[in-house]
Write a structure and sequence with these properties.
Shape: elongated
Mean pLDDT: 90
Distance between the termini: 38 Å
Radius of gyration: 32 Å
Number of domains: 2
Amino acid sequence: MADPTGCCHPCATCLLCFYSCQWITAKKEKRKGLRTTKCDCSWFLFLFLVFLFTLVWLYFTVIILNDFHNFNEFIFKQRKLWLDWSLVLLIATAVLITYSATLLVLALCLQLCGQPLKLHWLHKTLLILTALVVAAAFTGLGIKWTEEWRSAGVSLQATGPFLHIGAVGGMTLLAWPLASYIYRTHSTGLKVFLLLVYCAVMITLYLAPLGITSPCIMEESQLPPKPALVGHRGAPMLAPENTLMALQKAVDCDVQVFETDIMVSADGVPFLMHDEKLIRTTNVEAVFPERAALNSTAFNWTDLQQLDAGSWFLERRPFPTVQSLSASDRQEVARQRIPSLQQALEAAKQSNISIMFDLRPENHSNYQSFVNATLAAILQSGIPLQQVLWLPDGFREQVRQQAPGLQQVYGRKRLQNEEEPLLRINLPYQDMSSEEIRQYRRDNISVNLYVVNQPWLFSVLWCSGVSSVTTNACQVLKEMERPIWLLPSSTYLIIWIVTDCVSFLAILWAFLLLKYWLFSLSVPPESETDVLLTKINSLMQE
């Protein structure tokens, strides 16, 4: 079959200009007799794979946004540079995916127009660089942030049904350029190979829902109660972390537990602080420049009270929500100081919320004295012991004996031969499957998972039946009245069948329509003389 041009010459010329980086008209291209070679096909395949590779990285980028604040903190500890690196990552990823997607669309349009796929060497170089950059990003993720691979597995429970629909839709659209290429090529073997590969991929996609599982595929009547909210260091998107203002903002978000971190000063006063050093969340470099690099436990309580624990929040803006603070909130932020555990317990008692904490650093030589000082502060505060959730593992038996009323929370799963049954556990959300959460719920074990910031993740854990989640975004999760999506299994079955049927009919229509279209373009129209002679001949026969 001839290679008819399926679109106007100006359109084909523009496509060739952007794809081949040469301003040459489609007519000249045709006169030169240029065709798509095997090398050109190989570069098109490489372009398609780079696009898919970059698309997968875009998906990972969106998923890891839930945990990206941890990455920002890690970079600050290493380089003393604070920046919202998630914005940099999103911009870079958007540039890469836009570039590869644009080239792919140009290539598919050229194929539909019957033009050669002569990719310019500059595009080839940039595609190779794109593949290397994305490969380096995946490698770094695997080395430095391995838990995010498990986060991707969790995310598929939320996105699986929609990824299936998107994949079916994308492959269905690919039927048009594929049909165009098959009808234009003269190699029977290549035609058969492409059709077999395409059919195998489509059959796999059509049957993919058999392997898709999501806790949110359920009847609404089966939906467990909404998980309780635990404020991670308070409400760190609305106030400086581990301050009394952060605790109050968490109370305003209806959190049931204030989660914090405890250090003990050199003179034995427990206080709220996450980092071992004071540089990130105080102005210690301005007040005590010669001692700024020391651990926070090296400072006495009098020194710690001189530090500003709020202004950094306005200067570095660790979350975009800082920009929306009111003038009164900004003034209150500037007045924040490092609170003692005694002050935090008093505020928790007045607000009637529980408090859960880690005691740091666990490897300190005086850790037992830290435990004793912390326990003494709790007992002296007068707070009901059932409002205190004790998380540190060190010297737990001693704590249990001295204060049996404390709620013991374990940072591990239960063991097979557990002497005393666990009542509360606190784990990263990547460490618990939906099946385990349901089993623990049936066994009356309270499961708290951290850190959950994105609504999609909260929805999955809600459907799974988790008891509570630790979050930075309590103001967001508070407003959720139901999971983002909830589908009865019968409804999902209908969506699955309709999607597959529409896709199959669209593919069939694409192949039939293109065959008719290309055939009509390849048959030369009859001249007016031929038409006139035919009419005269028919009249004479009558």
